[in-house]
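[Meeting: bench + compute handoff]

Bench side (C.D.) handed over the final construct sequence. Compute side (W.E.) agreed to return the predicted structure before the next meeting so the bench team could plan truncations. Sequence as handed over:
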Amino acid sequence: MESSTSVRLDKCLWAARFYKTRSAATAAVAGGKIEVNGGPAKPARIVTIGDTVRIRIAPFEWIVSITGVAERRGSAEVAARLYKETDESREARERHAQLLRDAPLLRFDEGKPGKRDRRTIRRLKGND
């Protein structure tokens, strides 16, 4: 599936399956979520094999080295061969994922008090 040695950044991110659509990849690059070789990038920037790309997709961040480029989106197996994540990036992402799993859930399942609850609250306050 590899066709050349360089491709547009938005196509590269889409083909490597970081984004579901090419327009989503373009919006992420335009929004400053992507850096190439330590600097800001534009969607039409040409990336080549060996470039380092920092990808921020909340709440995680990937730092990958481009190992191949593709003009078209292929299977997940092909997409996985287009880049190699750095060891530091993988460890940081796994640590962050573990922190998120261990964090307490902030859920409010109770919602608004019902009629019975309001009467009980009024009774406890002494307003009734």
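W.E. noted at the follow-up: Residues 70 and 127 are 71 Å apart (CA to CA). C.D. will use this when planning the next construct.
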